[in-house]
Amino acid sequence: MRILKWVIIAIVAIGAALFAVANLFKAQIGERIFATTVERAISTNLIADLPDGLHVILLGTGSPLGDPSRMGPSTIVIAGSRVFVIDAGSGSPRNFGQVGISPGAIEAVFLTHFHSDHIDSLGELMLQRWVGGGHTAPLPVYGPQGVEQVIEGFNLSYRQDHFYRTAHHGADVAPPTGAGGEAMPFRSTAPSETLIDDGELKVMAFRVDHSPVEPAVGYRFDYKGRSVTLTGDTARSPAIAQAAKGSDLLV
Ligand SMILES: [Zn+2]
């Protein structure tokens, strides 16, 4: 009985010691996991293995109704080594790791419209891009008029978290000037509008019919003789046929 008593005391003592050590290193373990995750995100690079050209990845194809097998609407367009994201539906940023692309590589986001299921992971996307690339400027987010409100809202909601991230992970991982997004609104009254045209890449926005959601747009990317047209949510319309004319791919 006496031996048993000492065995129990020893087990309790070892358990308490382990608990104390675990608590002591809890903060460090958390930072370690975060640093490893960031490092993995940075080192993940599908783009290096892709041939130069235009590539499209469906990051999420779900709807506002919950579906464990599909994240909310979000599409990656890769033009050469440049990475763009169209819409940021529920949970979609969590698929970046699976497709082998670092969110830190995102150059800009394009929103088709402001339905909740197309924008509700924008906060997470901006955060992942920020710390994944140690960016010193906010993420440009293109959209029709109204995008200013959306970005202002997300920036406000995440303001406290931005401070925590820099305080906790350091200014190298989370530079204070790179947090959040910068709205890049365009005139939504024109039937179509060129947003980027630098001789290599051309990105155009065009109006679609997602009544009563107004404004709603699609985007067309042209890169080195290839093109993809993404409509977002829309009814069939002659405007889409016009915008997609000659496209290699219609999403
Ligand atoms: Zn919609």
Structural class: alpha/beta
- What is the beta-strand fraction? 15-25%
Distance between the termini: 74 Å
CATH class: Alpha Beta
- SSE pattern: HHEEEHEHHEHEEEEEHE
Level of helix content?
25-40%
- CATH fold type: Metallo-beta-lactamase, Chain A
Average pLDDT confidence is 88
CATH architectural label: 4-Layer Sandwich
CATH superfamily, by name, is Ribonuclease Z/Hydroxyacylglutathione hydrolase-like
Number of domains: 1
- Inertia-based shape: globular
Strand count, sense and barrel status of the largest sheet are:
6 strands, mixed
Query: Order of strands across the widest beta sheet?
Result: 1-2-3-4-5-6
Count of DSSP-assigned helices: 7
Cofactors and ligands present?
A: zinc ion
Poorly predicted ranges: none
Task: Provide the gyration radius in Å.
Answer: 23 Å
Number of strands: 11
